Amino acid sequence: MQQGSDPAVARGVRRVRGDADRPERPAEKPWFIAPGFDDFIVNNSDGSTALMILLAVYCALILSASLLGGWLPLLVRLTHTRVQVATSFVAGLMLGVGILHLVPHAWEQFHSADLTMGWVLGGFLTMFFVQRYLHFHHHDVPEEAPETHGPAEAFSDPEHHGREQTLADKSARRLSWMGATFGLTVHTLLDGVALAASVELDRRMGRTHGLLGFGTFLVVFLHKPFDALAVGTLLAVGRTSRSLRHWVNGLFALANPAGLLLFYLGAGRFLQTAPHFLGAALAFAAGTFLSIAASDLLPELQFHAHDRGKLSLALLVGVAVSVVIGGFESTGHDHSPEAQPLEKRIQHGADAKESR
C-alpha cells in the first residue's frame, strides 16, 4: 500500500514543483489580471515595494503637471492678445498631437492605412457636421480689448455686438471643449497604459539600471501640462463657470493614473482581444482634433490682421512642441519590438527574459 502510494505522492510533488518553477501560467491567473501583475502584488520584496513607490511618484508628478496646466487660464488674466496667442498655440498643439501622435498610434493598432484614415475622416466629418448643424461661428474678439476688464469682457463677440448669445452659439462653444476633452482623455488614458507597459517591460526584461520606463514618463510629463492647457483655454473661451473648469481639470488630471491602473487591472488582455476598438477611438479622436483646429481655431489667424506674425509664431510653437515631445518617444515606425502594439511589447520582453 505504501509503495503503491509513493509514486503518486512523488508525481504530486513534481507537479507542485513544476508549478512553482512556472508562476506565470495563464490558467492560474484571474481573467482581469494583466500579465505580470500577480508577481507584482504577491511578492512583498524590496523590488516590488520600490516599483510601487516609483509608479506612485510617476502618477503624482504627472497629476501635478496636469493640474498646473489646467489652472493657468484661471491664474493668468486672459486679455485679448493673450487669448488669441493661447488659442493659436492650442491650434498648433492639437494639429501636432492629432497628426503626429494619435494617427500613428491608431495605425499601430490597425496596421492598415485605410482603416486608420477612414476613422480619422469619420471623426473629422462628425465634428464638422455637428458644428455646421449648430450654426457654428468663430470666436472673434475685439482688436483692442480693455486691459482693465475681467476675463468675461475679454471674450466679447463683435459678431453679435453685445447681444445675448443664442443657444446654438453656446452649444457650439461647448462642443469645442468637449471634443478636445474627449480626444485628449482618450490619449491620456493610453498614455497611462503606455507608461505602465513600459515600466512592466523594463521590469520583466530584468533591467536594474536607471528608472524603469523613464523615457515614456518623460514624454507624458512634458506634454501633459499643454494638454490640460488646451482644455482649460477652450473652457475659458467657451465662457464656462470656474467650478466647471475645476471639475473638468481635476477629472482630466486623473485620466493618466486611471490608464495606468486599468493596465494592471486587465487592459493588457483587453488590448489583445480588441485592438481595433482602441485604434478606432484614437483615429476618431484625431479626426475631431483636426476638425476643431481647422474649422474653429485656425480661422482666428485670418480675422486678426494685427499681431498676425505673433499668432503665426504661436501656432508654429504649438506644432514644434508636439514634434519635440515626439522626439522623446521610443515607439518609432519600424519593426522593432518598441514599434509593436503594447501587448506584443510585453510578450516580447517576457520571451527575451525566458531565453536568457
How does this model look, in words?
By secondary structure, the chain is an all-alpha fold. It has helices at 2-21, 37-42, 46-75, 80-110, 113-133, 151-154, 167-204, 214-237, 242-253, 255-273, 275-297, 299-302, 308-328, 342-354. The longest helix has 38 residues, at 167-204. The two termini are 44 Å apart.
What are the main properties of this structure?
globular, 14 helices, 356 residues, mainly alpha, single chain
Strand content: under 5%
Radius of gyration, in angstroms, nearest whole number = 25 Å
User: Given the C-alpha coordinates, what overall shape results?
Assistant: globular
Quote the average pLDDT.
69
Poorly predicted spans: 26-45, 135-165, 330-340
Q: What is the N-to-C succession of helices and strands?
A: HHHHHHHHHHHHHH
Number of helices, counting only DSSP H or I runs of 4 residues or more = 14
Strand pairing plus helix content: what structural class?
Answer: mainly alpha
